[in-house]
């Protein structure tokens, strides 16, 4: 099979994050990242690697089974000390993070936890509440990525609401980009990238 030149959404997300993390090297401040949807911990581990030894990741999930899998994954990679996991909804981000925390970046991977109850899904109202709480904590040039899935019940409505909300963000304060494949017929996905100016 010939290599594809257009990256998948997952590949594009990682490219964005590697670029963001490269900018952290220009500062002496330890980077703080948020994983708004820990799931089984794949993104959490990715962020823990990016923040480095001085940085820290705060992760949120409502499902204990996912958090247990994430903890095991982090321990296996010797990254557990860089991460604090909360068994809580991501809308509690402002309450749970230490006061005056400045967030370098945040990642949200919406939908359901693979291998678990597909009825437990992220919801637009809690995701938007989380983003609204997080954006004031975001550093200048801080980035938030939101991977939206529509292949499950409620996914399209959630995606539409979040994209409509993101479109209302002030151009003076934020840039919002979107990456997707308009000719993908099934299980459409969208990646929102929000950068604070």
Automatic annotation (TrEMBL):
Top-level enzyme category: transferase
Enzyme Commission no: 2.1.1.-
GO biological process annotation, one example: methylation
Single GO MF annotation: methyltransferase activity
InterPro entries, A to Z: MnmM_MeTrfase, SAM-dependent_MTases_sf
Pfam families in UniProt: rRNA_methylase
UniProt keyword list: Methyltransferase, Transferase
Keyword Repressor: no
Keyword Transferase: yes
UniProt name for this protein: Class I SAM-dependent methyltransferase
């Amino acid at each position: 099979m010939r290599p594809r030149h257009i990256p998948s959404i997952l590949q594009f997300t990682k490219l964005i994050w590697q670029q963001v993390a490269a900018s952290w090297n220009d500062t002496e401040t330890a980077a703080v990242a948020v994983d708004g949807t820990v799931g089984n911990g794949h993104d959490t581990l990715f962020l823990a690697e990016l923040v480095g030894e001085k940085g820290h990741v705060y992760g949120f999930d409502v499902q204990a089974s996912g958090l247990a899998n994430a903890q095991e994954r982090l321990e296996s990679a010797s990254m557990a000390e860089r991460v604090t996991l909360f068994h809580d909804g991501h809308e509690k981000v402002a309450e749970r993070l230490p006061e005056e925390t400045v967030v370098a970046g945040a990642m949200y991977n919406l939908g359901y936890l693979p291998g678990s109850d597909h009825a437990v899904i992220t919801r637009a109202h809690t995701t938007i509440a989380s983003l609204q709480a997080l954006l004031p904590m975001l550093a200048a040039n801080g980035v938030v990525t939101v991977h939206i899935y529509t292949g499950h019940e409620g996914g399209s409505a959630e995606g539409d609401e979040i994209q409509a909300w993101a479109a209302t963000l002030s151009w003076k304060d934020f840039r919002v980009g979107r990456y997707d494949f308009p000719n993908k017929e099934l299980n459409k996905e969208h990646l929102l990238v929000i950068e604070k100016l």
